[in-house]
UniProtKB/TrEMBL annotation, chain A:
Topology with respect to the bilayer: Multi-pass membrane protein
PANTHER family recorded: ABC-TYPE MULTIDRUG TRANSPORT SYSTEM, PERMEASE COMPONENT, NODULATION PROTEIN J
Protein name: Transport permease protein
Family assignment from sequence similarity: Belongs to the ABC-2 integral membrane protein family.
Swiss-Prot/TrEMBL keywords: Cell membrane, Membrane, Transmembrane, Transmembrane helix, Transport
Subcellular location(s) of the protein: Cell membrane; Membrane
Transmembrane segments: 21-44, 69-90, 122-143, 155-178, 185-204, 243-263
Keyword flag RNA-binding: no
From TrEMBL, chain B:
Protein name: Transport permease protein
Main location: membrane
Stated family: Belongs to the ABC-2 integral membrane protein family.
Origin superkingdom: Bacteria
Cell compartment(s), UniProt: Cell membrane; Membrane
Residue ranges of every copy of the ABC transmembrane type-2 domain listed in the record: 29-265
Keyword Oxidoreductase attributed: no
Signal peptide per UniProt: none
Pfam families the record matches: ABC2_membrane (PF01061)
Keywords, ordered alphabetically: Cell membrane, Membrane, Transmembrane, Transmembrane helix, Transport
InterPro entries: ABC2_TM, ABC2_TM_bact-type, ABC_2_transport, Nod_factor_ABC_transporter
Annotated source species: Tissierella simiarum
Length: 277, 278
């Protein structure tokens, strides 16, 4: 039986990404190093802010509901790292090809252009599964990370978060193709996530208007649900409102992602700026 | 002869700066984000510090550092780190960009030494960093508030050997980029690790003993520490004069060692012919 050209295109992009990854062994080293060094600064900042007599830690515990600031931050920073990798990866996927002059030839292939991003998503999912496994092992070894709740439920939260994260990725890749400035776009989106999603701090310290914005962002719900499950052993029933929100936002963002990509595709073709950088 | 060379080098540096200015303003959103990004990094840490406050003060932090004004501590760390980043990215990443755009070989064919080209690439980056740092500090002062004392001139004098020494480090990073072709990860990891090990966000005395030893072995730590000691009156690791001496020695050794390594690597790359590979 002949394989569909769409599947062939998706798998080709996946294969290409894998080949590039294997071409740079230092990326694998980076994959080992980042989970340790990224939360490091936040953890020791928290330690410094805790002081020596425990009073400040008690203040944190009152607001956040836990004195285990290590698990609190490790969960937040891991989700942020996944988001950050995805943004860079989607942002640079099309942009790098623009710079290297291969985007136009790829665009000439007789397959729907969205397959390029879908292939990229497949690679990202594969990469993130490996990344999360390495991260979990390293957290246990280096930071003595305590996993109280169900690992299966935590995995489910991550799976349900994927459509919303990748929907943002699709919108993002489209914006970069149009606006060309990958770095700024990454800085903006990841900056919004780090300011509003409570990656390192309890949301209760935010002013009301910021708290309202944070509730709209799906990543806030992913982090909050993961913290409840991992640190306090919450069950599916306890986090069902967050799960519903993640499913709902995933559908909306994915649809917006497809629309944005199609719109941008048309726009760059009309203006003839597909290969411009 | 030396004077003639100097004139040629300066003219090359000014051409590189002109080119960088052109590129910078061709991407206006990037320019705006150079200012917004540090604020976006600082804001979550500000809220983190807020969650540990007792009656609006970081009492716990004062027990380690000697000041309860965590925002001032953080802003100084961020400003110094932005200079470190500027040199590392300005020098290391420029090579990667030239490789990707396919102009590195033609640039290397010009009679301008590589180290001069790298210095040229870092200058505009440093100018922008200085403007950004001042703007960011002003914005953070407006949004979050912090206090520093009048020792600003002394702090700037401390920053100078630190910056010159960073060029040595920049040459070293550029050499690594040439060998491995993976600039992003190398610079990102080096930059990030240096920032946290040298105490960008916290006093290094909170680190485990083994890691403190590593921090103490990195001369940049004394730059952060001395500048904070001067501006905030925090507890310093050594007397400020001793820290300045360490920075000066680091400056002299760093610059010569960095240049030596770069020269060796440049020769190696030319010999095996991998300059344009990426």
């Amino acid at each position: 039986m002949k394989r569909s050209p769409i599947i062939t295109a998706i798998l080709s992009v996946f294969k290409k990404e894998l080949k590039i990854f294997l071409r740079y062994p230092s990326w694998f080293i980076a994959m080992l190093i980042w989970p340790i060094i990224f939360p490091f600064g936040y953890l020791f900042t928290a330690k410094a802010l805790s002081g020596t007599d425990g009073q400040s830690l008690a203040a944190f515990s009152n607001i956040s509901g836990t004195s285990d600031y290590i698990s609190f931050m490790l969960i937040g920073t891991t989700m942020w790292m996944i988001m950050n990798t995805m943004l860079w990866s989607f942002g640079t996927s099309l942009r790098t090809e623009q710079i290297r002059g291969t985007l136009e030839s790829n665009w000439l292939c007789p397959v729907p252009k969205i397959t390029i991003l879908l292939g990229h998503s497949l690679w990202e999912i594969f990469f993130n599964i490996i990344f999360l496994t390495i991260t979990a092992i390293e957290f246990k070894l280096v930071y003595n990370f305590k996993f109280i709740g169900s690992p299966l439920l935590s995995f489910l939260i991550i799976i349900i978060s994927i459509p919303s994260i990748y929907g943002i990725g699709f919108i993002f890749a489209s914006l970069v193709m149009w606006q060309k400035e990958t770095n700024s776009m990454v800085f903006l989106v990841r900056g919004i996530m780090s300011v509003f999603c409570g990656i390192t701090y309890p949301l209760a310290v935010l002013p009301n208007w910021m708290g309202n914005i944070s509730k709209v962002i799906p990543l806030t719900h992913s982090i909050s649900a993961l913290r409840s499950v991992i640190s306090t052993g919450a069950t599916l029933a306890d986090i069902k409102s967050q799960i519903y929100y993640l499913i709902f936002s995933g559908i909306i963002l994915m649809a917006l992602g497809f629309l944005a990509f199609n719109f941008t595709q048309r726009k760059v073709k009309e203006s003839g700026s597909l290969g411009h950088f | 002869m030396a004077f003639k060379n100097l004139r040629i080098y300066l003219s090359a540096i000014s051409a590189i700066i002109k080119k960088d200015i052109k590129i910078f303003f061709a991407y206006p959103i990037n320019a705006v984000f150079r200012i917004i990004e540090p604020i976006m990094w600082i804001t979550p840490v500000y809220f983190l510090s807020k969650s540990f406050q007792i009656n609006g003060e970081n009492i716990g932090f004062g027990q380690y550092s000697g000041t309860t004004d965590y925002m001032a501590f953080l802003v100084i760390g961020t400003v110094v780190s932005s200079f470190v980043s500027s040199v590392l990215w300005g020098m290391g990443f420029s090579l990667k960009e030239e490789k990707d755009s396919g102009v590195i070989e033609s640039n290397w064919l010009t009679p301008i030494p590589l180290w001069v080209q790298l210095i040229g690439r870092s200058i505009f980056s440093l100018i922008i960093t200085t403007i950004n740092s001042l703007t960011v500090a002003l914005l953070i002062w407006t949004f979050f508030g912090f206090n520093i004392n009048n020792n600003i001139i002394h702090a700037i004098i401390t920053l100078i050997p630190l910056l010159i020494a960073l060029y040595g480090l920049g040459f070293g990073i550029a050499s690594l980029v040439l060998i491995t072709s993976n600039a992003n990860q190398i610079i990102d990891i080096t930059n990030f690790s240096l920032n946290i090990l040298c105490g960008q966000d916290f006093p290094i005395t909170v680190l485990p003993r083994v890691i403190t030893a590593i921090s103490l072995a990195i001369p940049l730590t004394y730059g952060y520490d001395a500048i904070r000691g001067l501006l905030l009156g925090t507890n310093t690791l050594f007397p400020i004069k001793t820290e300045l001496l360490i920075l000066t020695i680091f400056m002299i050794i760093g610059i010569f060692l960095g240049r030596y390594i770069l020269k060796k690597v440049e020769r190696h790359c030319k010999t095996i012919g991998n300059i344009g590979f990426h």
